[in-house]
Write a structure and sequence with these properties.
The structure is a single chain. By secondary structure, this protein is an alpha+beta fold. It is built from two helices and four strands. The strands form two sheets. The protein has a two-stranded antiparallel ribbon with strand order 1-4. A two-stranded antiparallel ribbon has the order 2-3. It binds iron/sulfur cluster.
Length: 76
């Protein structure tokens, strides 16, 4: 799954939302988030992000970002 990280904070771009085939982006408190269970791991959003904020959860130390994305996505 892909996850939104800190470079998204206060970012005003929504290019990622427009390309996601399963609409799994949600509004967090001051950034967008991805619902980790809804993401189909297609990778389409990653190159679209001008802030380089979208990372695969296979990168090191992603656990807290996965939890934050899940927490805000599930509020919707
Ligand atoms: Fe959506 Fe694909 Fe990005 Fe997952 S990897 S958030 S399914 S565009």
């Amino acid at each position: 799954t892909y996850i939104v990280t800190d470079n998204c904070i206060a970012c005003k771009y929504t290019d990622c939302v427009e390309v996601c085939p399963v609409d799994c982006f949600y509004e967090g408190e001051n950034m967008l988030v991805i619902h980790p269970d809804e993401c189909i791991d297609c990778g389409v959003c990653e190159p679209e992000c001008p802030a380089d904020a979208i990372r695969p959860d296979t990168e090191p130390n992603m656990e807290s970002w996965v939890e934050l994305n899940r927490k805000y996505a599930e509020l919707w």
